[in-house]
Automatic annotation (TrEMBL):
Main localisation: secreted
GO biological process, one term: lignin catabolic process
Species, as recorded: Protea cynaroides
InterPro entries assigned to the protein according to its UniProt record, in alphabetical order: Cu-oxidase-like_N, Cu-oxidase_2nd, Cu-oxidase_C, Cu-oxidase_fam, Cu_oxidase_CS, Cu_oxidase_Cu_BS, Cupredoxin, CuRO_1_LCC
Cofactor(s) needed for function: Cu cation
Stated name of the protein: Laccase
Localization: Secreted, Extracellular space, Apoplast
Amino acid sequence: CRVRHYKFNVVTRNTTRLCSSKPIVTVNGRFPGPTLYAREDDNVLIKVVNHVKYNVTIHWHGIRQLRTGWHDGPAYITQCPIQPGQTYTYNFTITGQRGTLLWHAHILWLRATIHGGIVILPKRGVPYPFPKPEKEIVVILGEWWKSDTEAVINQAMQSGLAPNVSDAHTINGHPGPLSPCSSKQGGLKLQVESGKKYMLRIINAALNEELFFKVAGHNLTVVEVDATYTKPFTTDTLLITPGQTTNAILTADRRAGQYLIAASPFMDSPITVDNATATATVHYSGTLSTSATTLTKPPPQNATSIANKFINSLRSLNSKKYPAQVPLKMDHNLLFTVGLGVNPCSTCVNGSRVVAAINNVSFVMPTYSLLQAHYFNKSGVFTTDFPGNPPISFNYSGNPPGTSPANMNTMNGTRLYRLNYNATVQLVLQDTGIIAPENHPVHLHGFNFFQVGRGLGNFSPKNDSKKFNLRDPVERNTIGVPSGGWVAIRFRADNPGVWFLHCHLEVHTTWGLKMAFVVDNGKGPNESLIPPPSDLPTC
Ligand code: C2O
């Protein structure tokens, strides 16, 4: 293994999309930012220098950060922000992971333009558990706003209303060739040769959109998600939520031609935006670039059956070499309701504001880092009384909007849930339909978990747990809680520190759909959090 050094200069750069230019905050002037390459077991050091007017932090989404929570990145959770003019070096070792992940800013809405890919290759000499592709391509899905994203969310928070949606989806930073404002350059043009295989490392870095992904005239074979190998399966459509990653093999089994790649939104209340479908092209060598492109029809935005079919096909590889180590005996059985509600707000447009909560607690961001408060025993920053179950039970998924429960007002608090080192946790995430049922891609920092169950309606401990898959459930770090339904996940708390859990739709995070686990040190020699680095930013 080796040490890899990267330098991330956070700088403003004037960028043109959709026929207009605006200054955006970037890493090294690029949108999307640079890809990090490393092998399993490598030590990665990224020196981040903040040259902009905003506070900044970077999160290495899905990297386990075993005992190195100081380098995880979420602002005020594991560190104070890197202030303008300041520098911080993230330093972590990649342990037991290989595949594709992403990095992104983890403060305000800066993630909109500060993000990029992480490629983790297997250890030298260790092959993939599938035939080696001819080439690997990083494909980053994102969103583009014509206006300033910080202004978009600030305005929403003042009014209490939902923020504006983006003006375009993007593939590798561009709306693509079908956009009326396409620059004709930039974006992804995948050059292939007939008969060869290509691995797409697809990342959903969008702020607020779950996305379908298709290639005209071609199937895709999924081999890995969230940097864990899966049983290969072939599909014509992928579904990727914000924060998720998928490695899929494209076999160039056509003789020639050009084929459209399409990334289109999946959500329950369809939005109509021009540029809703981001596009790119697969180009077979020997084909004239002026030849017609074979198009593909994106799934409708409410294509729940296509989404479910994809999700239900995911299984962990569970081979001898890569066994699925699903915890079987549970120390904690938790049920978290995730959903939206409304709270009174005298200064808001409607006299109320949209909030989001877990078990009716809307999380209040502290002004000091939780991990520092935990490590130095500083009181008054957080409490450890986060409820492991909903305060009241009601028909979570079934209520027509506005009918129940009687008290829809959420509590506010910086409440954490405490776990002993190595405790096993089963967590059922249950969507509520208090305002409207919605999908919630929930991300847990510091761990991978197994998705042992998933269903619609209210979770029934008695009936549903009998059907859990404890043999080869998919292992990941971000999971889509279905609208009006639930997922059950299991993990082992083998990583001491403070670990954020939140909806990866940035608007829901902002509204409070977040909480954190605090995992105490173990007693063994390698079971404690390392001491804080000397350059850790202060608040
Ligand atoms: Cu990718 Cu806490 O986020």
